[in-house]
Amino acid sequence: MGPLVPPLVPPYETVGEGPHHVMAVHGWFSDRAAYAAMLPHIDRRAFTYVLPDLRGYGEARDVPGAYTTSEAGRDLLALADHLEWERFSLLGHSMGGAVVQRVLAAAPHRVQRLVGVAPVPASGVPMEGEQWELFASAADRPESRRAIIDLTTGGRHPDAWLDLMVRHSLEHSDAKAFRAWLDSWALEDFHEEVDGSQLPVRVVVGAHDPALTAEVMRRTWLRWYANADLVELASAGHYPADETPLELVRAVEDFIATS
């Protein structure tokens, strides 16, 4: 089955003017502002970062689509073509970790390095019962979004931060798209398309993330990518870009700079 609509060149922001091109893809709860706390600290002479808004988010909030990781992968390749980037590295947070793997599966020859941050495996994230109900209700219930953010960061952060994260999520995502995205990133299994890849890959997790843990990464990402390594950030949960931005910049740039 083909795409419901043609590939889209998504709206995007460019930061830096370096020769190494990096596409940074946000997760389920945010638009491209997911990386805002990192941006003051990146090496703008070495890297050019492009931060797109996926369909249903940010400037693409009202853009129709299937809201799937495979569709997003095609959109990001359309963006790379628009930018005239023949080769580039990929950075994906959470749901964005699944999206960037779709790019790799579709065009492995174009990807230099890949970094997943608290990333969804290519096998999806199976959930049942109350856990699934919590995530499925998050499209329409702000309190569910707040509970998920609090849970996945270890219940450690101030109420004001949780409120800010929820407010940004509500203001910068479309509820119907948000719900549709869940079915794609949580339920789809395409790991056979990346299994055995020789691409250099780094997986970054937060020690306080109870869901996408180092052990989960060892059973998924590190099993399928022959040249993968794992970095665990001791002070982070599921949102290292917000919780420990300096540590995340080091983990990302030290890795991709070696290519």
UniProtKB/TrEMBL annotation:
Entries under Pfam families matching the protein: Abhydrolase_1 (PF00561)
Residues making up the signal peptide according to the UniProt record: none
Hydrolase as UniProt keyword: yes
Keyword presence, Zinc: no
SUPFAM superfamilies for the chain: alpha/beta-Hydrolases
Keywords: Hydrolase
Domain AB hydrolase-1 residues, every copy: 21-137
GO function term, MF aspect, one: hydrolase activity
Protein name: Alpha/beta hydrolase
